[in-house]
Structures are given as C-alpha cells and as structure tokens.
TrEMBL record:
GO terms for cellular component: endoplasmic reticulum membrane. Its cofactor is pyridoxal 5'-phosphate. Its EC number is 4.1.2.27. Belongs to the group II decarboxylase family. Sphingosine-1-phosphate lyase subfamily. The keyword Lipid metabolism applies. InterPro entries: GrpII_AminoAcid_Decarb, PyrdxlP-dep_de-COase, PyrdxlP-dep_Trfase, PyrdxlP-dep_Trfase_major, PyrdxlP-dep_Trfase_small. This is sphinganine-1-phosphate aldolase. The modification N6-(pyridoxal phosphate)lysine is found at K361. It comes from the Eukaryota. Pathway: Sphingolipid metabolism; Lipid metabolism; sphingolipid metabolism.
Amino acid sequence: MSSFSALPVALQHKLASATRSSSSVVMAMTNLNIIRNIIFVLFILRFVRRSFYTLRGQGIIGYIRHAYSQIRVFVYSLFLRAPGVRGKVDKQIAETLTKLEAKLTPQGPGVIKFTSLPKEAWTAEQVQAELDKLSAMEHTKWEDGRVSGAVYHGGSDLLKLQTAAFSQFAVANPIHPDVFPGVRKMEAEIVAMVLALFNAPQGAAGVTTGGGTESILMACLSARQKAYAERGVTEPEMILPETAHAAFNKASEYFGIKVHSVRCPTPDYKVDIRSVRRLINPNTILLVGSAPNFPHGIVDDIPALSRLAVTYKIPLHVDCCLGSFVIAFLKHAGYPSPYEDEGGFDFRLPGVTSISVDTHKYGFAPKGNSVVLYRNRVLRSYQYFILPNWPGGVYASPSIAGSRPGALIASCWASLMSMGESGYTDSCHKIVGAAKKFEEAIREHPELSKSFKVVGQPMVSVVAFASNTPQVDIYDVADAMSAKSWHLNALQSPAAMHIAFTIPTAAAVDNLIADLVLVVAEERAKAAERVRQGKAAERKRGDASALYGVAGSIPDKTIVRRLAEGFLDTLYLA
C-alpha cells in the first residue's frame, strides 16, 4: 500500500511532484559538479602541459633566470612610477624628444612648411625647384659610401633604366592583370628567377611583396594558417634565434603567435640547436633561421634546423632578405658558400619550406621590392586572402596589400634583366671582397686588433665588431665615427657595431679603416686622460652612447619604448 494513501489525493500529488523535483535538482547539481570537475581537471592538465613544455624548453635554470628577470623588470617599473622619480624621467624624456625634434625637423626663417594645398596649382618648374631643395637638404653622404646598408645602389646607369621603367608603368596596378598584362608577366618572371637562384624544386611558388618585413609576415601567416587547417593549432608558437629580424616579432604581435627567442651563444653566435629542439612542442608552427642575420652577418646552422624540421614535420623559414643576391652568388664569385658540404642553406635542404629574399637590397631594385618563396603552391595558398561573397564581387589578394605599384615591379624586373648573372657575380665579388678586407683589418691591424674583436665568422656582406678593452667604448666609437660623417649601425646584446657593405661602401673601405684607426687613437687618448684626472674626470656621451648605454643598463625598457615612440611621432611633424 502506498505511504501516501491516508493523505488527500491533491496533497499526494504535490508530495510526489516535490519528490520528483528534488530528485531533478539533485541530478542537475550532480551533473553540474561533474562538469565543473571536468573543467577543473582540463584546466589543471592544460597548466601542467604548458609548464612541462616550458620547463623542458627553458630548463630549470633558464626558467628561474626568466622568472628573476620578470620580477626585476616589475620592481624596476614600480621604481620608475614612484612620484619623485616619475617626474624626473618624464622631464628628461621630454628634453630628449625636444632635441630630437630640433634635429630632424627643419627650422629657421628660410624654411617654408606646406601644411595645406596651394590655392593655385604649381607649375612643373615650381615643383621641380622645391624638389631640388628637398634633395639638397643636409644629410649623410651615402653617395660617398659612408652609410652602412640603407642605400643599395647599383650605379647611375641602372638608376636611369629603373626610372624609365617606373615612368612607363607608373599607373599600372597588378590587381588588374587584364588591364596590365605586362606587369603580371614581369611579376611572375621575377618570382621564377628568384626561385631558380635559391634552388627551388619543381612546383615551388612565390609572391612579390613590398619589402622584407611583408615577406616575413606572409611566411609567418602561412605557417599559422597551415597549422590551424591541418593540425587544429589554436595557440601557435614559433622558435627563432634572438638575432632574427624584428619582423618576426611584428608578426607575433599582428597574428597572435607566441615567440620563443633562442640564444645565439659565443663564439659562433649561431642559434643554439639544442635549445631549439627542447622548445619544440605540439603548438610549434614554424622554425626560423637567418642567412645571414642583420646584427652580426652570421648564417645560422640551416642544415641542423632542416633536420629538426623534417623530424618534427614543422615548416622552416630561412630569412635571406639581407643576404639576397650576395649569398646566392658567393660560389659564383669564388667565395665559400655556407654549408655547401651539408646541402647549402636553401631549398636543397628538404626541411626548408619558405625563404624571404629582398630584391631591393643586393638585387639593386628600387625600395619596395621583395619576394617570399615557398616549396609548393599549397604553402603559398595559406597566405592568400579570399572573400567570395563580398557585395563588390569576389575579392582575392595574394598578400597584405590590395592595390600595388606596378611601376616598382617593372623597375625590379628591369634591374634583374639588366644585371644578369654576370653583373651580380661582379657586385658580389666587390662587396664581399670589401667586407673581407675590413674584417682582416679588425683582426690584424696593429691598432684595431688591440681594441676590437670580430663577432663570429661573417661570410657575406656584414661585419660586426665589439670592443675587447675597457679603454675603448664601442658606443663612443660609434659617435666619433658619426662625427666624421660615417653612418654605422650600433648594436646591443652584446654591445657592438656593424657595417653592411654595398657597392658605394666597398669603394670607400680604405677610408673607413683609416678613420676607424684615428678614432681608436683618439678614444684611447681620452681614456688615458680620464685615468689621469681620476674621479674628477667628466665623460661626455654622444647619441649612440647615451641611448644604448641606457638601454643596456636598465631592465625595464619603458623609457626606451617611449623614446622610440617619440621618434616615430617626430617623423610626422610637418
């Protein structure tokens, strides 16, 4: 008999309903607890997994060192925000930026600034006269070979040809291949020629871009999209040498890719392969090597990176933006080519899946030209942007830009055809020959060898050198060379400077060595005088010494970032 039989029927129904409701609540709570526990377990597993890969990649000592560095940065940032300190820092930054503005933006009664359209159209003569004034503004004389890199000039005859090609295709836009078929043909041929230079296999592909940064961005995007499409990777990571170009870090910020920066230890300053191997995990979408890197001109161990790429089935990008047509022609010019006995540094290695090459550097094309190469068309397709349902029609573009200047493509094509293999072989011989001569002077000159040491074993066009004595501060040397109208590159971590040789710079290598010898003698004399004066000695700091001295001595880079941001703002002051 039911236990509810003595109760009214209506009450029995209510009690039964309450019992069922209570059971449902208990069941729901149980299910909720199970789901909560599952989520918690997944969170713990994710944390443990991340911690495992971090510890495996960095090692216990490396992990502790990283944690200490982060704590140090945090504490120093608190110090900079302290009321008494913050005001002084802000004042000094403002003073520095004011000086920078005065240096970069023309001032004075003779300077006319145009901040609005002229009421009446200028004549061609008026425009040309103003262009002549702008061209004649005081600047470092790159024409005399006194600038490191920056201007990759192939000669006045080539410049005239480029100007003619630019003029002929000034209105061309490759987004309309039916309107400008000649530009489409030239662009495809540029890609084909550069693919051949870097020993691409059958079926390889590529795209022209607006510069090395865009080429690198596209390679990173392709790797990210490939990993997502083929492996479902949603938290992508890439592993690169600490000397890799800053464009990889830009790609990291733009595309949400975590960067593992691997040290390049002395004495060879190449990426540490064992560290790269330890950092590889299921989220790794790309390995990176430089041939050569920008800071020191060192070619990473690309064959070893290729073996890792093949073993772990991860794309490998080789950045040849700087080396470009010099590294490709080393063997032709009679110089050793990197890792020739191990398969080279390009598509001959099975693990290399993409390469970035700047045609606007040692290809001598006008600025705004580069190429990103892929082992196959599938890899290239991952960088494409396609919107099939746009109201304006089906939209497709191969890279970041939509419209692109066909004139630059025409000028690049004209440069490649005008130079040919013989021209690039000759330029490689001149450039690398000058670099070798300068390197030899640093290593063997009686004065220079006492003060400097060459960073690693450069093989291409860049030679970096650091001080090997406390008597000579490398940044003071940089400032002193600047005072002699040399524009060299100051480096950090380690403190050093470099010169990237070009055709104009190669012709001035003897003057460079002579001035460097004079500067070293002057700096040694200053050091001796400071020792004589003792504590009373006052040391004047130049721009490079002040900036990089500060950057290297403080853990928090907020001040440096603010100065860099101010510099960029200054560029747009009319």
